Amino acid sequence: MRRETERQRERLETCVLVCTNDRDSEYACCADVGAEETVEAVKSWLRERGAFWSPIGVTTTGCLGLCSEDGAAIAIQPRDEWYADVTPEDVPELLEQEFGPDAESIDRRAVDASEHSSH
């Protein structure tokens, strides 16, 4: 076992976790509502801005506990931001809100930064 905390902290500032949980059940799951397409939309948005994997990582996960028939669940860590009902079409607005239009706001939410600058 190797501890890689320091190396990852230097490389990644934040990680977008996208639920792709698939279950055979009467209940909704992210896999059935376009989770894979949502993951690809997140990756594409970040790649277009040169921010994919460094400084922003993308990871698929099991259930995040925000199951819905309306879209996938996303968590952004270590910001502790959680989103439900995310569709591929929602991704540009969500990521711009979190990271700014060019993915330049990594250590603080872009929304927070713009709210502080307008006062």
UniProtKB/TrEMBL annotation:
Annotated segments matching region Disordered: 97-119
InterPro entries: Thioredoxin-like_sf
CDD domains: TRX_Fd_family (cd02980)
Basic and acidic residues: compositionally biased ranges: 105-119
Name of the protein in question: Cobalamin biosynthesis protein CbiX
Family annotation (SUPFAM superfamilies): Thioredoxin-like (SSF52833)
